[in-house]
Predict the structure of Glycerate dehydrogenase.
Amino acid sequence: EVWNPNGKYRVISTKPMPGTRWINLLVEQGCRVEICTEKKTILSVEDIIALIGDKCDGVIGQLTEDWGDTLFSALSRAGGKAFSNMAVGYNNVDVNAANKYGVAVGNTPGVLTETTAELAASLSLAAARRIVEADEFMRGGLYDGWLPNLFVGNLLKGQTVGVIGAGRIGSAYARMMVEAYGEFLKANGEKPVTWKRASSMDEVLREADVISLHPILDKTTYHLVNKERLAMMKKEAILVNCSRGPVVDEVALVEHLKANPMFRVGLDVFEDEPYMKPGLADQKNAIVVPHIASASKWTREGMATLAALNVLGKIKGYPVWSNPNQ
Ligand code: DGY
């Protein structure tokens, strides 16, 4: 799909993105916008090299793509100056390689903070109250009347919520989970909710009843939650991951879920997306959703706009709007 065919700057989006604001913005500033409508979900390096072609000023890409040396050298050969991930995470981008070829890199923080935190909060509550299991039970025609023991879950009131990676999203999650409940408790004249900064990650793992993971993925956070750390957690704890799959050792997690039926997880991300490790899908104590934490209309349009601004800024000679290097 091509917009403004005679535009001076050629900007490629490797995927159709929500809304038209991002397209208008680029077109108004003299760009020819090419949107790849290829049906396959994940584009290979070769696919993207073909898209870049001989002349390309900037690319908006996706977290499913491997933006390393090969692609940045191809983009730079085509005269490209800017690349933006349409994501806040940029573990798929080799920023050093981009620097080497003089390509500026952008990402899309801010616009997805609350949307992502809302999904983490939703997964926490859904896991606590076994909502997905109960929904499957209803749809399976298995409900034949109220029972005292039917889908008994955890009450979050009075429990400890732990956040690992208290950046923008982790802090927003904490506010949603803790402050909202705190106000409710205060209004009822009950003991207010308190905050504390844990002295170590292991302390969070040992003490929290619900733990939400929000670190970036890099060498230091790969398999941050491994077999040993899972064993530190309470037997009835809830673990939520809306960060990146490899932050959790998924094979160890499957074993832990099998051995501890009262332990629950809410996962938005997986080690080898789009796949789940064998056995995970069979676990009733796991809620799994397909990497949708930022999937609200407002946020996805905002991400697309921010990604376009990143690329446009650089093409027009300004610093990249949102640069993970800064
Ligand atoms: C991101 O932005 O990094 C998410 O994983 C997708 O919104």
Remarks:
- DSSP finds eleven helices and eleven strands in the chain.
- Residues 168-187 form the longest helix (20 residues).
- The pocket of (2R)-2,3-dihydroxypropanoic acid is lined by residues 63, 87-89, 112, 294 (CB under 6 Å).
